[in-house]
């Protein structure tokens, strides 16, 4: 036992001494000046009914997004990826390149661990191809590792790129790294945000609250009062998804609908299907299904079919297989989108910045919703099942082959 | 499946001349190392009955079995590998790759017959197993590493090939096996599960199965008895790979194309097998118990889900139960050996040579008897 | 300095030591001889604290000890060199020597001191071929043994027990060991030297104690005795042991297996013929190459030179499967790790061969197996009992049954009755003879001369990988011993005149 | 890294000696009798190769920035792998590291948000010790196979995390973030942390009795016991040491990420990756052979590979294929000498197969 104590003692001592050393002897610091605001939050998410409100919920932002959803965007109506919602333009002349040809564009990608990101990356590459002036386009893939993405960002900002596009893997944890990069070159953040406004522009669609609300309102409208709602979420703690749910929660709490279950599917269709099946046995019937993303929508639909029940009103996403099922099975459905065409915008933004043109501080993109009315427009036959319809890529060179379609 | 009468041993003790052995002890012996898992399964099924009286209505019970089918098949395959003293960490990757590849195949040949595609998958799975097996047996790479590498390779290759998302849709015909029902009530998955289960039992009763276990027990003794150790072990890997491919067909059928169809299956399968009282390091345990272990896991998941337990605690409970079950087994085992071993004859070989098992020195634990 | 008095020990009522006494002087080599099962190792284990005696006392330098585990004996200054070394292959000599007793300075292992001390110890025994930094796995077996000895010396032992130290050694290494032993005694150690090889015993020891059937027979000064006397003392037993009658001439049939000029790393120019109905015995000391011969015939460690025929057809098996197909069976010496899959049922073990190698089409049906097991007179709690829970004798019967199931033509037995109780022994002997009668060719390797003499129709004596002599049925133990213990010098090499033996 | 590179190899002659006689070195590499030398030469080879390829592609590989990046990427995995090698040396295994890291970052960040840095450090290390003890006691006490024991522990931790955290939590003060971002000259501070921890572990495994007993236990538990080694206790301590290293990794990641993330350890698959690195470093999975120096080599190889892939912006999926091949190939080479075992039967040296 003494042996153990000695060792532990030694290790601790060593560790402490080391840290002390670190704090004292550090000469240069890349660390940003002030510390990022806390994203602290904990607590179970699956209590009775809708559970307590997510710690991510911000009333102000919620209201803002719902307001934005009502706005009509500026810019070419046929190119939603170039549109912007009431932009506050910001000057970028400081980044203007003497000769904006031979641009090297760099992109630190969180990863391609889901089809949405894969389609998105294809969009971005295609967009880059459209611009001859971009001579080099470097993509570093962090494979979902925050630590690696931080290093990637450091590496890229040390590499002499002209502009850096970042799609953060985690909001809170990437903030310091992005702050670092801001000092060195123009940074364009998109998709997920970071907790700093040092980026020249932050490209993203209206956002999760609007997404969640659209879906929830649809159910409130279609499902009879007291109807049983099943909410399927991907996984806890993912901000973009948390917002979707918390908005939906607000809507459901106001309505007379009864949310009987809130379950996490890990994005695994098999698990989703099992959950729905179990829910059916447990609650006899389900009158509506709310989803925070489309990955498992089809599985849910099938669960009802396999149980020999009619598919109730269901919300999905603009994923090909869901749209297909929607049309074939003539579902009562809605597909709010978190459009993949937003992957095109950062490239456009970067070029504008390097040309010294004004860009919005926060480039808010519209967030169209697929409804029964416009379903036909978005459902392109021959596209792969995991394709995302709202890619804004139909008119791009290489379509549909490069996107895996026929 | 878990009925004692199906374990190989029962048949033997019946045929064998055990005049003194009372039926009770005979059944106990027949259940062999599986006793804890059968108890566990019984308890869980009972708990399910209490939680949800409707659970045992034919179709809801069948849907339970159908859901368990892939894991059961994986467990059966994993058992073959574990019982001869190896590991197969690549099964999860095979499932994922299988689903993705199937979709990709249909992308290129939309009207391929489902039997052809299924066959291709099974062969491919077997091939992956063959490679793992040969690397492990011939190159003497610990199977833990071999299959870990194989896992990386398969996942990487599948997605690299399909550019991350497969292009085709899985047609209804192909999905029948995982989704459809025979005569409108009996899910094909259940049939497949029964077939695979029976096949596994038959394999283990066959000469091959017996030599396989003997190899896991002591490959030196086996080799001196003329067993082609390398071949036997490799075949085990092949079967495991094929089983994983079959599981892929079921999973793909059940829930369609997904980029993460097989995530975590490798550990679930190993857990199931160990839960069934099979000793890591080989030589002990019955395939029926291993499959019962798979059912137990699935029952556990369902129960926790029905209980409304958040997915969170699910894994905690799983962890505790696994450790407890195995620990219990280990305890029984050592006690028993103390009582029964005649003096002079020490405990069996500490670390069977050729055991690629990471902690060979501890592997005498882990089996009740 | 060391005295053991009236030590008795029994396992499950079977008495293996009947108040044995023995004493040891500083600087003395005290040889302990006796046949297998005479109780040598048990006595040694008692001394080492691995067994606690039922009665009797151990006194070291006047203080009485009762050891309950090896650590205490070690602490008291008694070191044991087991036949199987407790060394770590991939660690250096120094690390092995001080394993568990590493010297430390300020909490850290003092390598320098460790290696210095090891070097010193090696120097003290004039061992030049080993440096403290060498990896044990890079040493020859003899050197590894030296490391074991140094390991004992490091915990400055007074008494060193060596159990068959020369068993794993080649002849030239034996000489080295002898030299080492002398140096150790020169340093005042008392050495308890257990060996079969009378040559060594007479080279090294000052006194010899003979044990037989767990009883102390005699202790004499080596100078006052002769190998023949010792052998007689070891052997002179009450001639109650029953062995089945030998083969009559007309029972010995055609040639089943021949070897001419067979050799490999361990064996040299082996010429051997096995006939149907005949039991051929192989005598020899441990390490003489008897086991290697059996394994060579069985293709496990195949001949690399020479010709071999099985059942008249030329075949030099390179894998056990070939041998098995040709009808050769080997009952190995190491039952636990080579003979049985211990955690499998009796039945599965019995069927293992026929399942692995399709010898005669289908393996036997359950009924036949049951018949087989009855035939070998197996006593078990049913065929589904695990082999590990059987007694040594019954385990051996299972092994035999396993081979009978394959219907062999040639049966090779390596120490068929090692660790087998008396009753089972007789059963196995009878069985072996029956099998011979049915026309099998049988080869028996045994360290127990009486068994060998009692069973064999012919006896080959092996030494240093050669067949050095052939003796007719009923050859005397002395003549065998003389041939076997002759070692490198062929002085005593001539076969002694056959005399009425123990059978 | 140089400090580590020049450290005597766990088994066989240290690199210095081999370089003395070239022939010997060549032989020892060909038979790869000494994996440590082997893996560092491999690291060198990969670096040179990468440099050639990248330069051919018009990139620049051996820049300071890149070197720093490579070192930086070694840290997290390095810390975990160093701990992992302790348990593997002892013949055990730890699959719970990934979740322990995640939990560690969360605990660290939250404690720092409320309490002070020191409290947080102590809290994390305490957590680590607790988990390590639990693992060790389950393995030795309950005789549960280490694979299952630590896998079970992983599940337990996972449940705990998912039940108590809904996402990134806590906040790491700037003062502590310096651990993740500061550089002394060109070298990141965290690299010194890795070197320090590795050095301590190297000292423990090579220079203390405990370390000797760890090798003994992993090499041949029976022989070790016969020689009076308390094997059970040794295994437990090894697990504790491993968890402590993991705790250090968690602290580093917390400093780097500025917050705790539930997927900090799992997304990066630290459990399997660390084992891969250890084995790549020539440590036998069965225990008793290898050591920290080799492990660092393995980590370095993986990091360099990653960097090369980055430079050539290789498809991330293809990376996995290469990694898989590399790992298997490496172990296959190490396994080769064992096919003609030099040690006689009397010696049951711990081997990887």
UniProtKB/TrEMBL annotation, chain A:
It comes from the Bacteria. The keyword Ribonucleoprotein does not apply. InterPro entries: Peripla_BP_I, SBP_2_dom. This is Periplasmic binding protein domain-containing protein. It comes from Streptomyces camponoticapitis. It is found in: Cell envelope. It holds the Pfam family Peripla_BP_4. Residues 108-358 form the Periplasmic binding protein domain. Residues 30-51 are annotated as: Disordered. Residues 1-33 form the signal peptide. SUPFAM superfamilies: Periplasmic binding protein-like I.
TrEMBL record, chain B:
Signal peptide: none annotated. Its main location: membrane. Residues 352-369 have a biased composition (Low complexity). The keyword Transmembrane helix applies. Keywords: Cell membrane, Membrane, Transmembrane, Transmembrane helix. The chain crosses the membrane at residues 35-56, 76-102, 114-135, 141-161, 182-204, 235-257, 269-295. This is ABC transporter permease. It comes from Streptomyces camponoticapitis.
UniProtKB/TrEMBL annotation, chain C:
It holds the Pfam family ABC_tran. Residues 2-238, 247-489 form the ABC transporter domain. Coiled coil: none annotated. CDD domains: ABC_Carb_Monos_I, ABC_Carb_Monos_II. InterPro entries: AAA+_ATPase, ABC_carbohydrate_import_ATPase, ABC_transporter-like_ATP-bd, ABC_transporter-like_CS, P-loop_NTPase. Keywords: ATP-binding, Nucleotide-binding, Repeat, Transport. This is Ribose import ATP-binding protein RbsA 3. The lineage of its organism: Bacteria, Bacillati, Actinomycetota, Actinomycetes, Kitasatosporales.
From TrEMBL, chain D:
The keyword Transmembrane applies. It is found in: Cell membrane. The chain crosses the membrane at residues 32-54, 60-80, 87-109, 115-137, 144-161, 184-204, 235-255, 275-305. The keyword Cell membrane applies. InterPro entries: ABC_transp_permease. CDD domains: TM_PBP1_transp_AraH_like. It holds the Pfam family BPD_transp_2. It is a multi-pass membrane protein. This is Sugar ABC transporter permease. It comes from Streptomyces camponoticapitis. Signal peptide: none annotated. It comes from the Bacteria. Keywords: Cell membrane, Membrane, Transmembrane, Transmembrane helix.
